[in-house]
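Service request form, structural biology core

Requester: graduate student, group of Dr. S.
Request type: structure prediction, single chain
Budget code: on file
Notes: please return the result as structure tokens.

Sequence provided:
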Amino acid sequence: MNNRFTEVDGARLRGLRRARALSQRDLSRMTGIAFDTISRLETGKQRAQPRTIRKLADALGVEPRELMKGLRWAVSRG
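Core staff response, request fulfilled:
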């Protein structure tokens, strides 16, 4: 993975988190990502490194691309 920062689809991240009945603090504990970072990602105030997206995706049980703005529609439907 490289060090490029990627815009996270904050609404998608928030929706997945809520669908799993997780608070931002719960997700923070599960991933080791700071609570305030999760909040900023959900509101679009911060971009994420690939490793951060991977941690969030793993915790939420989705592919990382499903959290990246503009890329989630590329997910295979088949």
